Amino acid sequence: MEDPKDLKYTKEHEWIKAENNTAIIGITDFAQETLTDIVFVELPEIGKKVTQSRTAATIESVKSVSDIYAPASGEVIEVNEQLKDHPEIVNHDPYGKGWIFKIKLADKKELNSLMSAEEYTKTTKGE
Amino acid sequence: MHEKLGAKMVDFGGWYMPVQYTSVIDEHTTTRTKAGLFDICHMGEFIVKGSDSMQFLQKVFTNDLNKLYPKKAIYSLMCYENGATADDLFVYQLKENEFMVVVNSGKIDEDFNWLKEHSAKFNVEISNISSKTAKLDLQGPFSEKILKKLADASLPKRFHFIETDIMGIKTLISRTGYTAEDGFELYFPPEEAEKMWNKLLEVGKDEGLKPIGLGARDTLRIEACYPLYGHELNETITPIEANLGWAVKTEKPDFIAKQILKKQKEQGTGRILVPFEMIDKGIPREHYEVFANGKSNEQIGYVTSGTFSPTFRKPLGMALIKTAFSQIGNTITIKIRDKFYNAVIVKRPFYKYNGGK
Question: Which DSSP helix (H) or strand (E) runs through B258?
């Protein structure tokens, strides 16, 4: 699967899509493929303040527990409730229905430190 | 070899081993419904022989080896003087005075030294043949059908073994395993490992045989409530605490830790291993703290193994907790990343041998 061009990426394999002052966050196709069977997503609470590069949520496969880092700072305004019963959606559609949470951005300038699709794709090929 | 198959690898006690080839759930389900092939070459094997070998093994192991006869295998534990578990293992009686002992990979040197130290008064010879022995496990309902394509000899019954030739390779075929499915464990010279591996996958293709990694090996054994040394058993846990009293035969003559284990069997222990299923949504993992029902200030134990169960599609695990809280049906509370989740103690095992068929 190609990494969408309109998203920004972290080296920890999260993506973020900014729209005005809010942003949607998820994990990349490379991340879901590496994790394989995603069986649990611990969503952040609405209202929680997240900080760029710090843990915001947790995602678990059968045998592993991984942190999801916030690609940018802000306040959680929405979470993907569907993942509570169907975490496998992240495997099937990581850039669409498998989004994880939305934040109100604290500082849009933080997005400048993130990678483009092209830069990110390159990092996953080397691994 | 494994990386060619697209495996994700992990360093496991110095062995470079596959965690998964495709996905843990897929491999788990394949083993439960068809057949799986496991590379278990890292396990340790010893040969114990000599006129006192039976007496010696009776002294160092907890199960009653008098139940053995040539071509029969039995599970046992080996304990320290204080009753804690040195290792869990399988004993194969090869001949009247010759046995093969299969031990955990991380314990090979320690076990070998322990056996040597305790063998002084006995006429026995102990040798470590681990580096000269490869081991592949063929497990799942189609195992027999697959193995019959290669082995001419009639295959053994459960907990029995034969020594035969497969494609000219001298192989010990044992009808044992670690998955709670019908299946076999194959022991043979390591230089033949690649040939054996490839040939089995080839002849098993029609039955859906697939290579299985360590991830699914763990989820399969957790569902069966089989202990894994370093988790349900270690140098502080006794077999009675781990609910393995059936493999500790206190009525047999003297063996190491007999008095302590006998007392524990009769009077019980302060803590005990229990299987549990999650009530709340969350996945239990090893070392997570366990609390009395809803009481976050009263820790009663910890999780020894936990996973999402591919067969039952829900999170479950085993925990070592205070016996007073261990009744089936009791609610316990597990701390997962600073939040508290309820779970219920259930009957063991989650998954019965052969699916209870």
Answer: helix B258-267
Angle, CA B318 vertex, CA B315 and CA B324 arms, to 5°: 120
CA distance B47 to B94: 9
Tokens of B176: 């044992």
d(CA B315, CA A116): 37
Q: What is the DSSP string of B218-262?
A: HHHHHHTT---BTTTB-TT--TTTTT-GGG--TTSS--TTHHHHH
Domains by residue range for chain A, with CATH: 8-110 (2.40.50.100)
Q: What structural domains and CATH numbers belong to chain B?
A: 3-41+133-223 (3.30.1360.120), 44-129 (3.30.70.1400), 270-356 (2.40.30.110)
Q: In sequence order, which residues have a C-beta less than 8 Å from that of residue A4 and are 6 or more positions away?
A: A15, A95, A117
CB contact under 8 A, B283 and A40: yes
Closest Cα partner for B80 from B116, B114, B108? Answer: B114
Q: Cis omega (within 30 of 0) on the bond before B349?
A: yes
Q: For residue B20, give how far its alpha carbon lies from the nearest alpha carbon of chain A (Å).
A: 10
- 3-state DSSP call for residue B216? helix
User: Which position has the token pair 């130290």?
Assistant: B117
Alpha carbon distance, N-terminus to C-terminus of chain B: 36
Taking CB atoms and an 8 Å limit, are B215 and A84 in contact across chains?
Answer: no
pLDDT per residue over B246-279, tens digit each?
999 999 999 999 999 999 999 999 999 999 999 9
Phi and psi angles of residue B209, each rounded to the nearest 5 degrees, phi first: -60, 135
pTM: 0.94
Structure tokens given for B58: 């009776």
Question: Sign (positive/negative) of CA torsion B64, B70, B75, B79?
Answer: positive
Q: How far is it, in rounded angstroms, from Cα B182 to Cα B355?
A: 10
Q: For the segment B323-342, what is each residue's pLDDT rounded down to a tens digit?
A: 999 999 999 999 999 999 99
Nearest to B85 by CA among B298, B243, B315, B307: B243
Chain B residues whose CB is inside 8 A of the A62 CB are 24-25, 28, 215, 219, 307-308, 310
CA–CA gap between residue B90 and residue B75 (Å, rounded): 5
